[in-house]
Specification:
It is found in: Endomembrane system. The chain has 177 residues and is of the alpha/beta class. Helix content is 32%, strand content 28%. The chain contains six helices and seven strands, in the order ββαββαβααβαβα. The structure holds guanosine-5'-diphosphate and magnesium ion.
Length: 177
């Protein structure tokens, strides 16, 4: 934070990680622009989007980074993680393999981060209850063991999307203020 005109400014970098096609880009577009894309192309994506919220009467800006498809080639670079103080680790509740990858993503995140990172485990596509492949209980269990917040979301119907980002942003704010 820095003083400016008597107030304080906060800018937090948050990264979204997880296997390809779990819905990372759509979580970001839902949160930042209230948009959802049924046929989103992994290669089309902006580096990051900035979204503001108010905490304790202060403007807090979150700069949220999207991999733009790099994860397909296991080539998410250290630059992507640099300076991140928050992370959403996303899996798809209808595809177990994406949940099995969470540990690897956590390791990568920890390898690249040098400060406290507020972390949220996100089980996306909770609208696909009929083809659920990962139970809420086991995800909660993993989150507890790893010290992560946990939430199921749907970028499609908007369930918990705003909430997931805002919990992370508040936790970062608590960590630094
Ligand atoms: P990314 O590769 O992790 O960035 O995933 P995308 O955001 O590109 O989404 C991959 C596919 O999953 C796309 O076809 C999306 O329309 C779809 N998708 C994303 N989020 C949801 C969701 O919450 N529910 C459902 N049913 N589909 C989703
Ligand atoms: Mg993407």
């Amino acid at each position: 934070s820095s003083d400016e005109e008597g107030g304080e400014e906060y800018l937090f970098k948050i990264v979204i990680i997880g296997d390809s096609a779990v819905g990372k880009s759509n979580l970001l577009s839902r949160y930042a622009r209230n948009e959802f894309n049924l046929h989103s192309k992994a290669t089309i994506g902006v580096e990051f989007q900035t979204q503001s919220m108010e905490i304790d009467g202060k403007e807090v800006k979150a700069q949220i980074w999207d991999t733009a498809g790099q994860e397909r080639f296991r080539a998410v670079t250290s630059a992507y993680y640099r300076g991140a103080v928050g992370a959403l680790i996303v899996y798809d509740i209808s595809r177990r393999t994406t949940f099995d990858s969470v540990g690897r993503w956590l390791d990568e995140l920890k390898t690249h981060s040098d400060t406290t990172v507020a972390m949220m485990l996100v089980g996306n596509k909770c609208d696909l209850e009929n083809i659920r492949d990962v139970s809420v209980e086991e995800a909660k269990c993993l989150a507890e063991a790893e010290g992560l917040f946990f939430m199921e979301t749907s970028a499609l119907d908007s369930t918990n999307v705003k909430k997931a980002f805002e919990i992370v942003i508040r936790e970062i704010y608590n960590n630094v203020s």
